[in-house]
Design brief:
5-stranded mixed β-sheet, Cytidine Deaminase, domain 2, alpha+beta, 5 strands, 140 residues
């Protein structure tokens, strides 16, 4: 899939939230999610000894409080410009159950790639330098 201008803007939105709000060990990831009508929902993770919450989960809760019933694209960015981060297995399952057609932007920050959620490799690495070749890999 090709990056659209709206995809680039979504990465920029998540990056801005990460830069502004991820300034401690309590918040290390930011997610931006776009609705089909162009609204952007942002969220950060919550790190805690009892488990915490991924930013994708927080974004879904925020979307629900705003009456959002459909998401088009999601991207998660690490703090301090670390990388784009693929959803963990639990968030992947949550997104699949709620929004099976959602696209996820993954890969290195200098060459992000939007993919259908269902096309992500089963156990993606969180290191963008080791992320599989998303252009033709089956992730196996």
């Amino acid at each position: 899939m090709t990056m659209r201008d709206t995809d680039r803007a979504l990465v920029q939105a998540a990056s801005a939230v990460a830069k502004l709000r991820c300034r401690s060990a309590m918040h290390t990831l930011a997610t931006a999610a776009r609705t089909p009508d162009g609204r952007v929902i942002s969220a950060v993770n919550v790190v805690h000894a009892t488990g915490g919450a991924c930013p994708e989960t927080v974004a879904l809760g925020t979307a629900a409080t705003q009456g959002v019933t459909e998401l088009e694209t999601v991207v998660t960015v690490g703090d301090r410009g670390r990388s784009l981060v693929a959803p963990c297995d639990a968030c992947r399952q949550l997104l699949t159950d709620r929004f099976p057609a959602v696209r996820v932007i993954v890969g290195p920050p200098d060459a992000p790639t939007p993919l259908p959620l269902t096309d992500l490799p089963r156990h993606p690495t969180q290191d963008p330098d080791n992320f599989p070749d998303v252009a033709g890999s089956d992730g196996a």
